[in-house]
Amino acid sequence: MFTPKQRQLILKVFLSLFLSAPFILNGQIHHVVLDAGHGGKDPGAVAFNTQEKDVALSVTLKVGKLIEKHLSSVEVSYSRETDKFVELFQRAKIANSREADFFISIHANAASNASARGTETFVLGLHRNDANLEVVRRENAVISLEGGYEQEYVDITSPEAQILLELHQQNYLDQSIQFASLVESRFINHAGLKSRGVKQAGFLVLYKTSMPSVLIELGFLTHREECVFLASETGQNILAESIFFAFRDFVEKNASNNNGHAIEHNTTDRNEEVDNTSSVHSGIAYKAQLFATGKELPSDHAIYSVFNSITIETVGVLSRILTESTSSKAEALQWIRQAKAAGYEDAYLVTYLNGIRQ
Ligand SMILES: [Zn+2]
Predict the structure, then answer these.
(1) In whole angstroms, how far apart are CA 195 and each of 132, 144, 212?
(2) 288 pLDDT exceeds 60?
């Protein structure tokens, strides 16, 4: 299935992940890397005399100051603190080498449609639609400015990249979505902004981080009104506060969650034969995680047309939507194929040992 070269790459990817991954201990956040997008010769998006690199740096430094002042238990590192050019993968390397527990990349958006507005927070995943792809292309485009490092960049749709993506999702997706949801809530409730929600896409800057990571698009520089807000001291303070409040909530939740052990609810209203033991198997059991959401799952959600019986695990504000449990790995893998065929592309296998998610 793979050529020897591909196999070698896959092995390298596995080894680098397992040897360097600083898995979150006790779910606690001790060190965050703040990544101001672009910089130096790469201005990012430019509109109405405002450069994305300047907005990103200013908001990033403000977020860092708030964390340093109010969350003394968390160490803050930056990928850049001045107007300098930093390569995309260098940003992830900084976070990995410092064994950070979380990576936050801060950007501002742009679109050819001048009426596009609102914030969005991305977690690493497959491109879901053309609109996300447009943002990804723009944010990944900086590679063309990075001379001599082409060999570092792999095709995100290649088999080895897919394996890395899958591993990243198994280890870090829940926490990334959990934080992303908190950020978007604060943008709505604290900053009074329009939120375009939490999204998944294949950003190269997130792709090599061995920790939960998000990429925040603060708003559209190409929207005249939003650009004025993004460029203003007041606007930048409000945006930084929103991200800080979300981060503080996230850190505190993780500290008190005792490693985020899930509370399991059976969706009994959908499960005609209620059996209290149906999702508890001794020894090893499997489920397919279909997706995760920061919102309550409506009872008429489309997932119910794919699976009659689902289970929901709640961790903080995050709900993980899963199939029922089975002792047959083959059956769980079949459910994953079924989910993917129905459009739930990020479905993956979850293993339980004596009822505890591994
Ligand atoms: Zn950007």
Answers:
(1) 15, 31, 21
(2) yes
